[in-house]
Write a structure and sequence with these properties.
The complex is a heterodimer of chains A (228) and B (364). In chain A, 78% of the residues lie in helices and 0% in strands. Chain A has 228 residues and is mainly α. Chain B has 364 residues and is an alpha+beta fold. Chain B has 9 helices and 19 strands. Chain B has helices at 40-48, 95-104, 115-121, 137-150, 167-183, 195-201, 219-223, 229-232, 333-339, and strands spanning 4-11, 17-24, 29-33, 58-61, 64-67, 80-83, 155-159, 188-192, 204-209, 212-218, 237-248, 253-258, 261-266, 275-281, 285-288, 299-309, 315-322, 325-332, 346-351. In chain B, the strands form 4 sheets. A 6-stranded mixed beta sheet of chain B has the order 6-7-8-3-9-10, with helices on both faces. A 5-stranded antiparallel beta sheet of chain B has the order 15-19-16-17-18. In chain B, helix 2 (95-104) packs parallel to helix 4 and helix 4 runs parallel beside helix 5 (167-183). Chain B is globular. The chains are: A mainly alpha (228), B alpha+beta (364). Chain A binds chain B through residues 121-122, 124-133, 135, 139-140, 143-144, 224, 226, and chain B through 48-50, 74-77, 80-82, 84, 86, 88, 90-92, 101-102, 105-107, 131, 133, 147-148, 151.
């Protein structure tokens, strides 16, 4: 199957965006989920609601507000420009920030649920053996929620690959810089190039099926459970 | 030797309050006895730092302050090992890794407890590669005990470690703990609602009722007194210690020397010269004013009547002095009045041999 250079660039950009986004999501999602799993108050309820917002909000709404915030004349836009010398809006960095916010619930929620399932009794047992809080997290919580990390990473990755509205609003459609697969597909349809649209669409469908299949298979073969 | 000084106030659910001010021995085994809801587990959790006692409470181990007005030392910094009722083995680690987890975090400033010995005493060698979910309840508790020991605590807390075990597993576990107690010089606080279990292990006894201490002292002393709740239970029993003198394999019996007199019990696996505890239930002791001859009872001890508990019920309880130790005897009030007993009487106590079976050492 022949792909044009522009399509290849879109595929590479999409994988790059999804990889960077997933890495950042795991890095900030883990402590956030741990905090949410261990505290119950009005603040956590508010944060939980904010994290879940992208699940119900149209992506274009989120994209619209980010576009406004990222504009060169805003404090954030100016700060970014003074830091990097480049404009934030319509850049790859803007796509990463937008994707992180948009895919946050897909990473935080499975992790939070996994952390809540780790029995408190095991953590107190570890404490009586002299394990520090960080040690307990590393040696008890992480291994017991390992499969949820796989789930969270896969969902975050797949959701980033499939996003459209946020990217269109804050990234635009610059080939090689901000044109991801879903946008390239939209572009192809817009210009009535259905052959190209088919190639991209089939590729995305196959990719999604394979990823989800691998995910569910790994969940099924997990050796120990923490459902208590 | 450190002692554990406690001044605790801890409010629980409902209107339950644990309130005590005492010092626990820093050697041997202190048994905490009480019915469920008496505050035993709350007490243990406060000592381990798993629960925060009210402001104003203090917990001091030797020179180390674990809690006072300005301090609350977190659990992982206290030198307490805990054996929980439900074992709490880490499900993703096998037995060896569970033990290694403890040994790797062994308290600094102390040499690691000998791995080989602990594994031997608790009979864990064949289990090392197994995952916790494949173990029986008794095996899990033995692993939990070994794990707590390998973390080298200054003080070992045991919270009803045998509550979920059947009789055989319990006997096995107690035998292991008795060996640990003999071999390792580690103070233990052992919580249980089963006085017979404590009788196998405890040197001191603290009895809790509704969050307050009602008795605290030497186990042998408390178990032979008349004015305690223990003495009024149907399974009241005195504990005596004796030295193993000889074994008679022909009849399947062992002889103990208790205060210069002989007590025969079922054959036990102990070498001569070792000290053993025997538990003599009050209801299995009867009284004669003259030494009986031609009786089927094997154990007849010469004793002095130390105390009679007067009662309006059908039974009276006697405290009988045997050298420096004491026995309890429960008689009908009718018998006691017929014998016209008074304090200081020289009497003969007949003990049914079967009564001595409850010494768990015989179950080895």
């Amino acid at each position: 199957m022949f792909l044009s250079a522009q399509e290849w660039a879109a595929i590479q950009l999409t994988l790059m965006l999804a990889t960077v986004t997933t890495t950042i999501l795991i890095a900030i999602g883990t402590p956030l989920a741990w905090w949410l799993a261990n505290r119950r108050n009005n603040l956590t309820a508010l944060i939980e609601a904010l994290v879940a917002l992208p699940l119900i909000l149209p992506p274009t709404v989120l994209g619209f507000y980010l576009l406004i915030i990222f504009a060169p004349q805003t404090p954030i836009g100016q700060f970014w420009e003074s830091l990097t010398g480049t404009q934030l809006a319509f850049s790859f960095s803007a796509l990463v920030i937008g994707s992180v916010l948009y895919s946050l619930p897909f990473v935080v929620q499975p992790l939070q649920q996994a952390f809540q399932r780790v029995p408190q009794t095991l953590l107190s047992a570890a404490a009586t053996l002299g394990a520090t809080p960080l040690d307990r997290f590393r040696t008890i919580v992480l291994p017991l929620s390992a499969r949820s990390f796989v789930t969270a990473a896969a969902l975050g990755f797949a959701h980033t690959v499939g996003e459209f509205g946020v990217v269109l609003m804050i990234g635009g459609n610059i080939p090689g810089e901000t044109q991801v697969l879903s946008i390239a597909l939209f572009d192809a349809v817009e210009s009535l190039q259905f052959d190209q649209a088919h190639r991209l669409a089939v590729g995305l469908v196959v990719f999604s099926i394979v990823l989800l299949f691998l995910l569910y298979r790994s969940n099924r073969s997990n050796p120990w459970r923490v459902d208590t | 030797m450190s002692t554990l000084k406690l001044a605790l106030l801890c409010r629980g659910d409902d209107d339950f309050t644990l309130s005590l001010d005492t010092a626990l021995s820093g050697s041997g085994v202190t048994g905490i006895f009480g019915s469920s809801g008496s505050g035993k587990t709350t007490l243990l959790n406060c000592i381990a730092g798993l629960r925060r006692a009210e402001v104003g409470s203090s917990i001091v181990w030797g020179e180390n302050v674990w809690q006072d007005e300005s301090t609350f030392m977190p659990t992982w910094q206290r030198q307490t090992g805990v054996v929980f009722q439900d074992g709490r083995l880490f499900p993703h680690l096998n037995v060896q890794q569970n033990l290694r987890y403890a040994a790797d975090r062994c308290r600094s400033g102390k040499t690691a407890a000998a791995w080989d010995k602990v594994v031997l005493w608790l009979q864990l060698q064949p289990l090392l590669a197994r995952l916790p979910e494949t173990l029986s309840a008794g095996q899990r508790q033995r692993v939990a005990i070994a794990r707590a020991l390998l973390s080298n605590p200054a003080l070992l807390l045991l919270d009803e470690p045998m509550a979920n075990l059947d009789h055989a597993a319990r006997a096995e576990c107690i035998t292991c703990l008795q060996q640990v107690r003999r071999e390792m010089n580690i103070p233990m606080i052992y919580v249980s609602h089963d006085i017979e279990e404590l009788a196998q292990l405890a040197d001191d006894l603290l009895i809790l009722e509704n969050g307050r201490i009602i008795e605290h002292g030497s186990f042998l002393d408390i178990s032979s007194r008349l004015n305690t709740t223990l003495a009024h239970a149907t399974n009241a029993a005195a504990i005596t210690t004796g030295t193993v003198v000889e074994h008679d394999s022909h009849y399947g019996l062992s002889r103990l020397n208790v205060e210069g007199q002989s007590i025969w019990i079922n054959l036990i696996a102990a070498t001569t010269g070792q000290q053993r505890r025997i538990r003599i239930p009050a209801r299995d002791v009867s009284i004669c004013c003259e030494r009986p001859n031609a009786t089927s009872i094997l154990n007849i001890l010469s004793v002095t009547l130390a105390e009679i508990e007067e009662s309006s019920g059908p039974h009276v309880l006697l405290r009988l002095q045997l050298g420096d130790q004491f026995l309890l005897a429960r008689l009908t009030r009718k018998s006691a009045e017929a014998l016209n007993l008074t304090r200081g009487d020289a009497l003969f106590a007949q003990i049914k041999s079967a009564a001595l079976l409850s010494d768990l050492d015989t179950n080895v």
